[in-house]
Amino acid sequence: MKIISNIGKFAIIAALVLGVSSCSDDDDGDFVELETNLVLTATADSELSSLVAALGKAELVATLNGSGPFTVLAPTDAAFTTFLEANNYASINDVPVETLKQVLLNHVIPGEFTAAALKAEGTGYAETASTAGPNGENISIYYNATGDVVFNGGKSNGGGKVTTADIEATNGIIHKVDAVIELPKVTTFAVADARFSTLVTALTDANLVGALQVENGTGTPEAPFTVFAPTNDAFAKLSAVPTGSALTDVLLLHVIEKNNVTSSELTTSTVVSLGGNLDIDATAVTVKGEGNAEASAIIITDVQSTNGVIHAIDQVLLPM
């Protein structure tokens, strides 16, 4: 698939050279060194021509010409071809500009993170430059670098895997990835992060996965959601995991609809979830169901998706 004409590509290169080249003169003043920033580095790579075209279409060239540093997860041309075909776009030019912009910014992480740095962490969350969250919140991205470096659970979960790491540029670093990483919903992170595998099984058993995938302002219940997500260890503390309608009641207690409540917005108060009342203590950073003997600590905050935010907790919340 031909994404950009040679004339268009040369025009982008010319603009970049004029905008970001710098001179490093020797004694005779005849030596010129070109800064290889992120966009120039991508432009010089034959596997990233679709990415360069997409950056131009979304008017993000100037952003990635900035001082940074940035970590760019760069989908290959093959990845873009798959993305276009999967979404019934004939070319990059058919993707709505704002959609393309947010998808691309979801591949940009402020700061410079080498593969070695990610492997040292093992797993975790980072904040991307995408503002596709409710109220313009920045979208999160989950990485698992215990083996290959994988983002948001890999291709099967709308994420991607690093195929070539640590391509250095003057204002950041590029990791080539094998897929265009989709903008995540709350279920994306639940599936990607193995610490929530028991929760995912419970949501599947209760037929609630689809309910947590709805777009903002649509469906019943109505997104955006604030989800207090029990970890596997939290479920292990139960003498028995509820089943049937009791399981549904328990899971609904963990979800607040029509509100994307970040950690900075938590206040000491009683709030109404889909399954009943929850007592939040903003000072202790805890949440408690009416059927709990003690409050649950909120141990991970602000995992942000397009249709809601996740806060991980260390106990399962229980209704009266």
Question: Any overview of this molecule?
Answer:
There is one protein chain. By secondary structure, the protein is an alpha+beta fold. Mean pLDDT is 91; it is low at 1-33. The chain is 28% helix and 25% strand. The longest helix is centred in the first third of the chain and has 15 residues, at 6-20. It has helices spanning 6-20, 38-43, 49-57, 61-64, 77-86, 97-105, 115-121, 186-192, 197-205, 232-236, 244-253, and strands at 22-23, 32-33, 70-75, 108-110, 123-127, 140-144, 150-151, 160-169, 172-177, 225-230, 255-256, 269-273, 276-281, 286-289, 296-305, 308-313.
User: How many helices does DSSP assign?
Assistant: 11
Low-confidence stretches: 1-33
| Strand arrangement in the largest pleated sheet | 4-3-9-8-7-6-5
Helix proportion:
25-40%
Which structural category fits the helices and strands?
alpha+beta
What overall form do the CA principal axes indicate?
elongated
